[in-house]
Amino acid sequence: MITGCSFGVIVIEGKQYTSDLIVYPDGHIEDSWYRRKGHSLSLDDISKLVESKPEVIIAGTGVSGLMRPESGLDKLLLKKGIRFIAQPNQKAIKIYNELSSIKRVGACFHLTC
């Protein structure tokens, strides 16, 4: 359960994180996550998450939603049987908390802009 988020900070299961991160379907968290192209999200950036075989991947695109998925990423993931949802962090967190109890969900969060 993700219980809080503000600029540069996210709280998951009571622990505070201050760097971009990936949440795997089994609950494992990889912090200090970096993308190849800064504010662009590519399939390569989430390849390990895809390998974990989630049903859904939720991308928190930042507090203001400035991180953008590369064109066609949603279609590439759908071909792998993975639904992709990209939203600003507050909305992404709400969706993550709702879906993670009923589906195998992974997520990635950009914690700033």
TrEMBL record:
A single GO cellular-component term from the record reads: cytoplasm
Q: Which Pfam families match?
A: DUF498
InterPro entries linked: MTH938-like_sf, NDUFAF3/AAMDC
Protein name per the record: Uncharacterized protein
The major lineage groups are: Bacteria, Pseudomonadati, Thermodesulfobacteriota, Desulfobacteria, Desulfobacterales
